[in-house]
Task: inverse folding
């Protein structure tokens, strides 16, 4: 399948073309943007970042300095809280979470009593160590090492997809995102149900396929290529601040066809490097993969993609999803175009030779 040109109606589609479109007029105005993946709206109030901030200031995020930490429960050879010892693994290592949120042996059971509904959710939770080195991050690892992580994500997904409908690969990085340990690691939660956001993206992508005979996200790639929201791209992948981004520097990494692993390792290092260069600190984020559910059927409407949700608005101020976000809808403080501009500039600072494309 090739990337089809996107729809050319509505807001601008090419770099430079937007000056003549309604988007330019919206830049200084509070406005709402539509998220076609989640079928929801986000409020954009770009001028709001000028307000004086007297709230919480975050301490600078700094990474660990030592390659091995004798007290770390993820380092090779160390004993975990559950009592088991890690092997002296050379690169990556997977184990079932000692304090898993899902368990495979949960017995099927459903409750339905008027408005009260519940069902048992059998599943499993695994921890994936990305490296034996305690002090590395994906951005600081070699392409070969990141490729090993990509292979691990793919192998684990295939294995768990044989038993579970939804396989959620993700990484929480940094204390701010609740990472309990600085050792580079991610998680996989696999479950029987299709979770809330996965179900929404399933419905929106299927509806687009039925209506137009094309992929929602590949159409979106066609509409964004060469445009003001693209942060980075290569032959197989596009990294873009989505038009409807909720978090300040949120990005969407979309596989063109077919998704290839080596080029994924390359663009991951660049994208995460751009994040680290943005404020000159080890950037916290939650990221994760959305891939087709395992239902024993063709899932042509699904397009592989990853979401990156970093919380920082500036070096020491984080975005809180509170008040209006919890009660009405998501709101953001700078436009997706401004965020992409800054991320591209950060990428150029990080890799000046490569970024001159
Ligand atoms: Zn460690
Ligand atoms: Zn998604």
Result:
């Amino acid at each position: 399948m090739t990337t089809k040109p996107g729809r050319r109606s509505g807001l601008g589609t090419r770099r430079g073309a937007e000056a003549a479109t309604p988007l330019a007029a919206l830049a200084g105005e509070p406005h709402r943007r539509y998220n076609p993946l989640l079928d929801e709206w986000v409020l954009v109030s770009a001028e709001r970042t000028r307000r004086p901030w007297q709230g919480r200031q975050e301490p600078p995020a700094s990474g660990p300095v030592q390659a091995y930490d004798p007290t770390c429960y993820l380092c090779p050879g160390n004993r975990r809280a559950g009592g088991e010892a890690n092997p002296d693994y050379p690169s990556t290592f997977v184990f079932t979470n000692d304090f898993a949120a899902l368990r495979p042996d949960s017995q099927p059971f459903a409750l339905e009593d008027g408005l009260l509904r519940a069902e048992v959710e059998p599943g499993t939770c695994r921890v994936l160590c990305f490296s034996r080195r305690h002090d590395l991050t994906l951005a600081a690892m070699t392409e070969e090492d990141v490729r090993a992580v990509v292979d691990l994500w793919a192998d684990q997904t295939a294995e768990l997809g044989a038993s579970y409908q939804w396989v959620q690969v993700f990484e929480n990085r940094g204390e701010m995102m609740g990472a309990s340990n600085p050792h580079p690691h991610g998680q996989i939660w696999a479950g029987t149900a299709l979770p809330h956001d996965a179900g929404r993206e399933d419905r929106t992508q299927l509806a687009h396929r039925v209506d137009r005979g094309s992929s929602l996200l590949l159409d979106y790639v066609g509409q964004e290529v060469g445009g003001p929201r693209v942060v980075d791209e290569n032959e197989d992948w596009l990294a873009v601040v989505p038009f409807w981004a909720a978090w300040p520097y949120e990005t969407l990494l979309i596989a063109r066809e077919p998704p290839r692993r080596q080029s994924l390792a390359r663009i991951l290092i660049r994208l995460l490097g751009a994040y680290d260069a943005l404020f000159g600190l080890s950037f916290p984020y939650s990221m994760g993969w959305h891939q087709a559910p395992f239902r024993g059927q063709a899932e042509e409407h699904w397009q592989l993609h990853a979401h990156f949700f970093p919380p920082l608005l500036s070096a020491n101020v984080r975005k809180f999803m509170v008040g209006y976000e919890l009660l009405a809808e998501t709101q953001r403080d700078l436009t997706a175009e401004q965020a992409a501009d800054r991320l591209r500039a950060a990428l150029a600072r990080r890799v000046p030779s490569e970024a001159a494309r």
Notes: The first strand starts at residue 31 and ends at 35. The CA atoms of residues 174 and 284 lie 5 Å apart. Residues 1-19, 353-357 have pLDDT under 50 and may be disordered. The longest helix spans residues 143-161.
